[in-house]
Amino acid sequence: MAVDSSQSLAKAAGAQGARGRGPRTGKTPGRLRRSLSTHWYAWAMVAPVVAVIGVIIGYPLVRGLYLSTTDANEANVERTIGVNHIPATYKSVGLDNYTAVLSDGIFWDRLTWTIIWTVSCVAISFTLGLVLANMLNRKLAGRSLYRMALILPWAVPAFVSVFTWRLLFNEKNGILNKILAGGGIDAIPWLNDPTWAKLSVITVNVWLGVPFMLVAMLGGLQSIPGELYEAAEMDGANAWQRFRHITLPGLRTVSSTVILISGIWTFNMFPVIFLLTRGGPGDATEILVTYAYRLSFVVSPRDFAGSAAWGVIILLLLSLFAVVYRRALRKQGEVW
Amino acid sequence: MRRGIAATALVAALALTAAACGGDDSDSGKKSSGKLSGTVTFWDTSNDAEKGTYEKLAKGFEDLHPDVKVNYVSVAFGEANAKFKNAAGGNSGAPDVMRTEVAWVADFANLGYLAPLEGTPALDKADDYLPQAAASTKFKGKTYAAPQTIDTLALFYNKKMLKDAGVEAPKTIDEVKSAAKKIKSKSGKTGLYLRGDDPYYYLPYLYGEGGDLLDTKNKKVTVDDPQGAAAFKVMKDLVDSKAATTDASDGYNNQLNAFKDGDVAMALDGPWSIEGALQGKEFKGDKDNLGIAPVPGGSDRQASPQGGWNLAAYAGSKNLDASYEFIKYMSSAKVQQQTTEKLSLLPTRTSVYDVQSVKDNQMVQFFKPAVDKSVERPWIPQANALFEPIRLQMEKVLSGKTSPEDGAKSVGDAYRKLLKDYK
Amino acid sequence: MTTVTNPETQAKAPSSSRPKKVRERGERGPLASVALHVGLLVASATAVLPPLWLLITSFKPTSEAFSTDLVKDFTFRNYDHVVNDTEFLSWLGNSLFVVGLTTVIGVFISATTGYAVSRFKFPGMRPLMWLLLITQMFPVAVLIVPLYNLLASLGLLNQPVGLVVTYLTIAVPFCAWMMKGYFDTIPVEIDEAGRVDGLNPFGTFWRLIVPLAKPGLAVTGFYSFITGWAEVAYASAFMTGEENLTLAGGLQTFVNQYTSDWGSLTASAVIVAVPAAVIFGFVQRHLVSGLTAGATKS
Predict the structure, then answer these.
(1) What interface predicted TM-score (ipTM) does this complex get?
(2) Is A334 an interface residue toward B (CB < 8 Å)?
(3) Chain C residue numbers touching B16 (CB-CB < 8 A)
(4) List of chains touching A (3+ CB pairs within 8 A)
(5) Cross-chain Cβ contact B89/C152 below 8 Å
(6) What is the percent of chain B with per-residue pLDDT over 90, rounded to a whole number?
């Protein structure tokens, strides 16, 4: 469906020498000037974003990196109370925070659960999205009605939905347990038992995530040329074979991107956990991000340094994931 | 010209961001005449049933000082500590006066967020305060708050339900269990609601077994002594034997709802819930149905923690003069008498206990002796931080993920990390 | 040109008015049809029930919030209460201001970047792509404390504008990424035509591409709007005064550890959700094309 951009890119830019991975900046002044004259349009266009990222993401990031090597907490950071100014008294502790985090069982517990959480959320919502998209992508009475209904969870602001689920999940009075009681089933401690709480948060996140998958998959399905199916049918391929050999490969590019994106989103999914269980019961549903937030804004004294160290580790993990994922895709012939 | 467009756009965008960085509000203080003026922002943490009364009382300050506007803000107890720290630490949005839980004072003072009150109008007739209430307002020899109300936990019970089951208000945990059995066989209802989500409710069980969180004199962590594990065991046993029901979240509301609707017969609660309980269908037309007794004792004794609320002034307040006066007013004998009459909250001034209407208040009659015997908590900056490790382990123990012994041990380990100089 | 699918027609393709484009798969048997409808009905019911229950609950008095009856003491009191007696309207205003401004600035400064990355090959492009991807995965935890300190020192804490700056950290990388995906679907031939007419890249972008990309801009904007609309972590930490809260923070004051005013919560949630859902209904077709354009091409 797409133009092979690599051909026209260079032309459009009016550049001849910029093909492939050239040296980033010329080593000689002449080269620099030449690339400046060819690329200044592009650089000027990306400048605003680079500037914004540099200032409001770059500075805090560098600062966060720095904090993670100190013992900063709320009692020793610089602060101003009205007219009183209290100077910072924290000091550098090298990589102590990192060794402390990595040698702590809590980190590995949280990491394990975060991975389970991410993988199951993404896998389930992707599968459901794919199945529903295939069901919808055909002539069907009431198709647009179904579609509107299925997208609804996305249309409602997430924090509203999470509150709604809390209303449903209430163990003593919630509608879910009342329905179960009508069927003679004992009340389920949706949010009060560690295992049930885990299932509940995953359920809510899947519920929130399916519409995104559905929409992306529908788009992907519609971009597969119908002729392929016709040809396959003529060759006598059955429904499963058509799905296996046409639909799935046709969805590969879309799938790879949505899985990457939703994987990252889910890994960092703060609101669902925070508003539904606050990480409880105990720390059963606490993922890495909510734990790091707890360190810097809930526990006392607020552990800014520790929280920053957690943040940096989370970032490294995600970057690693993205690199490995991209590499795996490239091996299969994807270009990016 | 065409090139200019993008450049202009860029400049415009930057200008927007830059313009976004201005603006601050200002607040006037004392006029030259010495008359108070300006605004006093008051963060109140009282609960749903209480806040109407508190708002009215706070606004009453405007009658005394017509030039001062009281900006009453109700902040949920659960968020108040974090919110105040966010605001005070960032020096923006913090209130002038904050209703501060007794365990928060030392913490906030240690961070430099509170104004010392010695020599200010805020401390009025300080020797009238109950000594244990005043103790929670001090940090490193200075006073940072004025006590407003004092409380402790007690056993709330539904007289009718207990009578129907033929039991008296239980005095020990064992009696709670046998009473619960009778209640269940009689009405099918649960005996006790056990707060599994709030670590504060671990304390009566811990004290009951003869333990404590810390030994501040000898700088020793005592929560992981055998008594700490025993307390967890008692709680777990109450839940496992179905004598008690519990939740890992929303416990405050679930407990109050269950109790006032007659779904449970007993609950551990404090004076702050009296008003809420009386609004429920079990007690609405029948105030006398609400029975209150000391917390059931464990194997060692009957004891519950001392709590309460103080009033503190934010050190960065732009209107400290009016704030001090406001604190004086809100902690005055007159206001305390009203909170007792309307909400059955316990005064912190000895003189108020002599007022006839306070003397006649049944709740006060019950709670005052209980408060006198209640266990003082360690008034150290980390006092509030002691709860989080308990919450974590309590939920783990109650859900069976951790044994009581390991739970208590983990709490102790967390304390040693928190309190560097403790053994 | 032929290889490029116009998102408009793509989205409309399966509607029955254009039967030719719908592939004729083998006819379904009646059994399969029933199964299909049952499956979709179950899924739709699951999707619709929670919001529907929210709506139903909002018409019950708070004391009956957990009642299982569909209608119980039907009342508008909750709506009356949140609108007149709480700070709800100022929260709504704050949210609209913060998220609206974020979206406008975000889309505005991201559009050129999306275009540049889509069209040109220039030194620094690959690192930039990585930067855009990686900044999207920045966990709240790594930025929140430094941002808190930064805003505090600028006096922007507890100010809606401070939250705008914060949300730009989320919106900008995302918008640039989405816009790139959209520009990829616009044929390069248009750029070439522009060049032939003597326009420089800025002119081409501004005069030819931006008008064509309006749906893409709208979708990106809308998408970043709903992302900011639902943000909780920063809003909870940076906004403290009750009158400065955004909706995500404000609604938490109705239902939390010590209060459970479900009546107010459900009523305000409905007020927040209905307009959002209606707009969503209108733009969702564009959203489909916009997103998949981004997805298939990234």
Answers:
(1) 0.78
(2) no
(3) 101, 105
(4) B, C
(5) yes
(6) 66
Which residue, among B415, B377, B391, has the nearest Cα to B103 in the 3D structure?
Answer: B377
Q: Which of C43, B361, B317 is nearest to A210 (CA)?
A: C43
Residue A48 touches partner B, C-beta closer than 8 Å: yes
Name the residue with tokens 């266009």.
Answer: A45
Tokens of A75: 């009692």
B302 at the A interface (CB within 8 A)?
A: no
* Local confidence band at B409 (pLDDT 50, 70, 90 cut-offs): very high
Chain B residues interacting with chain C (CB cutoff of 8 angstroms): 2-3, 5-6, 9-10, 13, 16-17, 20-21, 23-24, 47-48, 73-79, 83-84, 86-87, 89-94, 197, 250, 252-253
Please list the residues that pair with B70 across neighbouring strands. Answer: B40
Residues C281, A24: C-beta atoms closer than 8 Å: no
Q: Name residue C44's amino acid.
A: S
What confidence category does residue B97 fall into, taking pLDDT thresholds of 50, 70 and 90?
very high
Q: Kindly tell me if the per-residue pLDDT of C16 is higher than 80.
A: no
For A219-262, how does the pLDDT look when each residue is reduced to its tens digit (9 = 90+)? 888 888 888 888 988 888 888 898 889 888 888 878 887 888 88
Write out the two tokens for C122.
């220039």
Cα separation, A305 vs A311, in Å, equals 10
User: What residue of B is the nearest CA neighbor of C164?
Assistant: B20
Helix, strand, or coil here: C82? helix
* Mutation for A interface: C28, C120, C188, C298, most A CBs within 10 A: C120
Backbone φ and ψ for B247, nearest 5 degrees, come out as: -140, 155
Tell me whether residue A328 is exposed, middle or buried, using C-beta atoms within 10 angstroms of its C-beta: 0 to 12, 13 to 18, 19 or more: exposed
Cross-chain Cβ contact A211/C47 below 8 Å: yes
A272 or C62: which leads in pLDDT: A272
Quote the minimal CA–CA distance from B28 to chain C in Å.
Answer: 19
Q: Rounded to an integer, what distance in angstroms lies between the CA atom of residue C268 and that of residue B155? A: 37
The packing angle between helices A304-331 and A252-267, to 10°, is 170
Structural contact between residues B48 and C261, judged by C-beta atoms closer than 8 angstroms: yes
**CA–CA separation, B330 and C43 (whole Å):** 56
Render pLDDT for B38-52 as a digit per residue (tens, 0 to 9).
899 999 999 888 889
Smallest CA-to-CA distance from B194 within B264, B253, B267 is with B267
Between CA A102 and CA C122 the distance in angstroms is 40
Q: Is B326 within 8 Å of B200 (Cβ atoms)?
A: no
- For the stretch C132-154, pLDDT in tens is 877 877 777 678 888 888 888 88
Please state, in angstroms and as integers, the Cα–Cα distance from residue B70 to each residue in A264, B73, B144, C250, following that order: 47, 9, 21, 21
Scanning the structure block, which residue is given the tokens 């065991």?
B233
Using an 8 Å CB-CB cutoff, list residues of chain C that contact chain B: 101, 105, 108-109, 112, 148, 151-152, 154-159, 161, 164-165, 168, 199-200, 202-203, 205-207, 237-242, 244, 252-253, 256-261
Question: In B198-340, at which residue ranges do the beta strands (DSSP E only) sit?
Answer: 214-215, 220-221, 244-247, 264-269, 290-293, 306-313
Residue burial C26-46, b: 16+ Cβ < 10 Å; e: rest: eeeeeeeeeebeeebeebbeb
Question: Which residues on chain B are in Cβ contact (under 8 Å) with C101?
Answer: 16, 20
Which of C109, C277, C297 is closest, CB to CB, to A49? C109
Give the pair of three-digit tokens for residue C157: 């804490």
Pairing of β B264-269 and β B190-195: parallel
Hey, what are C98's tokens? 């913060």
CA B245/CA B264 separation, integer angstroms: 8
Strands B154-158 and B290-293, by their bridges, are antiparallel
Among residues A154, A158, A336, A152, the alpha carbon closest in space to that of A257 is found at: A336
Mutate to test the interface with B, among C202, C240, C265 (most CBs of B within 10 A): C240
B315/A82 Cβ within 8 A: yes
